[in-house]
Amino acid sequence: MINGYTKRRDTEKKVRRSENRVAKKRAMLFGSLMLLIVGILLIVAFNQKTQNQLLQEELVQTQEVMDERVAEEKDLEQQIKQLNDENYIARIARSEFFFSEEGEIIFNLPKTNDENAEKEEPEE
């Protein structure tokens, strides 16, 4: 039985189906766009985290080098102070180059380790 009511109902069903299809397509489109954006943001965040870790490691290495340089600078400043001291220079010249004052005799004694001295002593 085909009358005006059934025709109208059939056309309404067709319109709803087409509207549902359009709504599903829109939802799929927006959903895929959202997934794409979230994926891009995750990739950017991961790259930033990796870069941050690399920079942190480089910072630690640079800090270690800087600490070494600061210690070296302090040592060099101490050496400069010592080299400006005439007594220190005289002491170095006497010990390393065997310079002596007038009337002094310098004896060069061999250096012995405590272990060598113990081995050379006779055991009882």
The Cα radius of gyration reads: 45 Å
Helix content: over 70%
SSE string, helices as H and strands as E: HHH
Flag low-confidence runs: none
Q: Tell the overall outline.
A: rod-shaped
Can you give the mean pLDDT? 86
Please report the distance between the alpha carbons of the first and last residues: 132 Å
Number of separate strands: 0
Largest sheet data:
none
Number of contiguous helices:
3
Strand content: under 5%
Structural class: mainly alpha
Descriptive key words:
single chain; 124 residues
Question: What is the structure about, briefly put?
Answer:
The protein is mainly α.
Explain how this protein is built.
- Helix content is 80%, strand content 0%.
- It is built from 3 helices and no strands.
- The chain has helices at 4-83, 86-97, 114-120.
- Keywords: Membrane, Transmembrane, Transmembrane helix.
What are the SSEs and their pairings?
Layout lengths: L3 H80 L2 H12 L16 H7 L4
